[in-house]
Amino acid sequence: MTARILVVDDEPSIVKLVATTLSARGYEIITGYNGEEAIDKAGLHHPDLIILDIMMPKMDGKEARKRLLADPKTKDIPVIHLSAVGEFDSQLDAMQHGTTDYITKPFSPKELAEHVEMILDPKRRDELLKMQHAKTGKLSTIVNIMHRDR
Predict the structure, then answer these.
(1) How many CB atoms lie under 10 A from the CB of residue 110?
(2) Is the model's pLDDT at 111 over the cut of 70?
(3) pLDDT of residue 83
(4) In this model, does residue 150 exceed pLDDT 60?
(5) Is residue 5 classed as helix, strand or coil in its secondary structure?
(6) What is the three-state SS of 48-112?
């Protein structure tokens, strides 16, 4: 069965790049352009993964992620934040509050596809958990150092 991925970003060029990259790898792609569409389409299509920008009109990606996590029908869908928001505090907050992965723009389409494959492959669950733990640990260390210097 082909995995279904919801790609949500307010930049059509980003949506097209991600959709083209992942559809070439055999994934079914659903697209959206704001947080409200992310909520609606996730409930309607039940994707296996959501790739979600943070800064978007109508509803930002953080709020959309919160609402997805609060809904029993969508709470277990993995979310990758793909965002230009590169602040370490924002990344750490996302990772500590239900985001599966966080990739900053500009990004490598190949790297994104590799992350998607890891998240969707149940055999790589341990590898994914180790990656999440390591990323959260690094971000936490960086944020603590930054706040100490203030």
Answers:
(1) 9
(2) yes
(3) 79
(4) no
(5) strand
(6) CEEEECCCCCCCCHHHHHHHHHHCCCCCCCCEEEEECCCCHHHHHHHHHCCCCEEEECCCCHHHH
CA distance 109 to 87: 21
**What tokens were used for 96?**
């500590």
Query: How far apart are the C-alpha atoms of 143 and 125, rounded to whole Å?
Result: 27
- 120: which 2 tokens? 């969707």
CA pair distance 50, 111, nearest whole angstrom:
16
Q: Which residue has the tokens 């590799």?
A: 114
Q: Is the pLDDT of residue 25 over 80?
A: yes
CATH of domain 4-148: 3.40.50.2300
Tokens, residue 47:
């994707």
Residue whose entry in the numeric block shows the structure tokens 């609402």: 67
List, as own/partner pairs, every contact residues 112-115 make where C-beta atoms lie below 8 angstroms and the sequence separation is at least 24, other chains included. Answer: 112/18, 112/21, 112/22, 112/51, 112/80, 112/82, 113/21, 113/22, 113/25, 115/80
- CA distance linking residue 136 with residue 44, whole number of Å: 31
* Structure-block tokens of residue 46: 């039940």
Number of other residues whose CB lies within 10 A of the CB of residue 66? 15
**What angle, 0 to 180 degrees and rounded to 10, lies between the N-to-C axes of helices 88-96 and 61-70?**
10
